[in-house]
Write a structure and sequence with these properties.
66% of the residues lie in helices and 0% in strands. The chain is an all-alpha fold and 80 residues long. The chain contains 3 helices and no strands.
């Protein structure tokens, strides 16, 4: 099946990606705080450290996917 819809422009992708990054960071921070206050405090010290590292850096992978999508080149009809 051939999809003839126009691809979003770079400007639109960057706007949507920026909104997605803000939403990701806000929800990740709220979720990490909720987990850190509840379940992580009952773990032994080593596992608390591991949990805090994961909670603190886990947002990087989804953010990288969003940024990669934002920075894609625009498809031009003459190059297809």
């Amino acid at each position: 099946m051939n999809d003839n819809r126009p691809a979003p422009t770079g400007r639109l992708r960057k706007f949507v990606g920026t909104l997605a990054l803000v939403v990701l960071v806000v929800f990740w921070a709220l979720g990490a705080m909720a987990l850190a206050q509840g379940r992580v405090t009952t773990l032994p010290a080593f596992w608390q450290f591991v949990a805090y590292v994961i909670l603190g850096t886990g947002w990087i992978v989804p953010a990288a996917w969003i940024i990669r999508w934002m920075l894609k080149y625009d498809r031009r009809p003459e190059t297809l």
